[in-house]
Amino acid sequence: xxxxxxxxxxxxxxxxxxxxxxxxxxxxxxxxxxxxxxxxxxxxxxxxxxxxxxxxxxxxxxxxxxxxxxxxxxxxxxxxxxxxxxxxxxxxxxxxxxxxxxxxxxxxxxxxxxxxxxxxxxxxxxxxxxxxxxxxxxxxxxxxxxxxxxxxxxxxxxxxxxxxxxxxxxxxxxxxxxxxxxxxxxxxxxxxxxxxxxxxxxxxxxxxxxxxxxxxxxxxxxxxxxxxxxxxxxxxxxxxxxxxxxxxxxxxxxxxxxxxxxxxxxxxxxxxxxxxxxxxxxxxxxxxxxxxxxxxxxxxxxxxxxxxxxxxxxxxxxxxxxxxxxxxxxxxxxxxxxxxxxxxxxxxx
Length: 349
Hints:
Layout: H1 15-19, H2 32-35, H3 54-62, H4 68-76, H5 84-99, H6 105-134, H7 140-158, H8 168-174, H9 185-195, H10 205-212, H11 217-226, E1 230-234, E2 249-253, H12 254-260, H13 265-271, H14 275-291, H15 301-312, H16 328-339, H17 341-348
Antiparallel strand pairs: 1-2
């Protein structure tokens, strides 16, 4: 047998590829290795993410569901993964199914919609109040333009017309029409971030009830499940130039991803102060995966994410890699050898 040759060592010219992100023309396809992982903590919300492979079984079982009781039984398997809003809704559904096992979940939501709609309006007013308070920092003319938009929102919220309903996205888009003076840009950015806290079905039980009271039971059941499934998240949003590369990707729950939208990570941490702790758990889970032989070819991922989170969070997220058995150089070498495993095999024999 030919004498075995040592694998080619990574050269200094190639270190950049394994230490840092390089531009990738495409979508989130480079995040596929992350979506295959199991038992991973969501870095945004702290729950254990439902593995991607569970979706097929869930959808198969969902087709058989006819009653509220059956929907609750299906969701019960995933209860431990649920976020706060979904846990609150699931508890309501459990009680409803206990008393009305042959009914369906849409009827449940329609029964409580009126009360939830009133509470939702109060939640919306609270955010608009905070936006108006911040408007005092603006010039008179800019503040008036902003107040015109928040006043219109208040009128819509208080309206009883079914055709005149408050649309969160419409209000957020309308804020882009305000052109601030040079010294007002930071204040307006703060106002836009505050407006992102307007309730959604991800953040508010009341918003969920109002929105999904119009949906069929199958959609309601699926929505509770999907919120905790894996989703590829850009640490630096793609709309702001964030790369489509694994070094800019986190595996988060779908709800945590959607709720962040284009909110800066700094402001997202203000909304969820435990994100730095959750990110550490996330990396610890990733390290366990790599130590167990997973994420082949991405051994530098913990180092990339540590640096990216530190930068984008402005030092608020400080990840420890003390549990990681590979140094930065070792991780880069292992990634390099895995990528060139076929070339190495040919050279050895």
